[in-house]
Amino acid sequence: PSNRDDMPSIASEHFGDLASRLYQLTSRVEYVDISHIEDSTRLKPEMIRNLSLISYASGSSIGNVHQFIQLAQKNALTMQSLSLECRHDIDILGLVQDTEGNHVEYPRLLTLKLWSESDTDELRRPVFHGAAPFPILRRLRIHLECPFDDDTFFRGNAATLGVLDMRLDSASVSMLRKYKMFEPGRHLRLQVVKIKYRGGYDSESFTSPAEALQYMYNIGSGAAVRVFAQFRYPEDQVPTFSPLGSHVCIQVLSLPV
């Protein structure tokens, strides 16, 4: 089905009930939304196969997150859309590597969204030593500081990524520069770039608002891109930068300093 509304799905506030219903429908369930649940003990991810979309918003138990990641691993070959709320204690490496160290690839995944409703300063940011877990990704939305300390989300999909919606801090900028993720012309299929930068200005990230804006422009310099840049700068110091090509539209929004 092309539309989520057309997909066989189930929703339940009581996870035990959800699990029992899943067991009855495993042959045709394609979309599972695991949100605000209390009891994760009865779900057996190994029994649920061939999902296309799964979504998770945190409940009261970290066990729910572990169950979600297992569910994603078991359905990696068919998954097309994955949405995950990241808690500070989540093991994000589990998305791309199982407990035995085997790498997990999502060969059909088109949309990946990660976000957080809480402080993620204590989030563990691992390094993944595998190849390209998301090789044909088209839409990447990371509404928290990058949870990996490397280029895991960008490996192998430079020719397919069309929408990039990302929040950066100083550490993320330093990491992305290290891996040369946003070199001019690298992502030729980008159509929309939304970057929110809430870090400071120093030698480790951007030295000035002007450099930040130029950097964001470079992300989409090889294609017809709309770039929405949001970052801090004093109202009396509107950043200036070198002239842009006619193929790029940039909207600059000032955040309080």
Q: Can you describe what's shown?
A:
It contains four helices and ten strands. With 257 residues, the chain is an alpha/beta fold. The protein folds into two domains: 8-137, no CATH class; 162-257, no CATH class. The relative contact order is 0.08.
Compact description:
This protein is of the alpha/beta class and 257 residues long. The chain is built from 4 helices and 10 strands, in the order βαββαββββαβαββ. The longest helix has 13 residues, at 62-74.
Element layout with pairings:
Blueprint: E1 9-10, H1 15-25, E2 31-35, E3 53-57, H2 62-74, E4 81-85, E5 111-115, E6 139-143, E7 163-168, H3 170-178, E8 192-197, H4 209-219, E9 225-232, E10 248-255
Parallel strand pairs: 1-2, 2-3, 3-4, 4-5, 5-6, 6-7, 7-8, 8-9, 9-10
Task: List its traits.
single chain; 257 residues; alpha/beta; 10-stranded parallel sheet; 4 helices; 17% helix; 21% strand
| Strand/helix succession | EHEEHEEEEHEHEE
N- to C-terminal distance: 46 Å
- Unreliable stretches (pLDDT < 50, length at least 5) are 36-41
Q: Oligomer, anyone?
A: single chain
The Rg value, from CA coordinates, equals: 20 Å
Fraction of residues in H or I helices: 10-25%
Helical segment count: 4
Biggest sheet overview: 10 strands, parallel
Overall pLDDT level? 75
Number of strands: 10
User: Structural class, judged by helices and strands?
Assistant: alpha/beta
Percentage of residues in strands:
15-25%
- Provide the spatial order of strands within the biggest beta sheet: 1-2-3-4-5-6-7-8-9-10
Shape: globular
Question: What's the number of domains?
Answer: 2
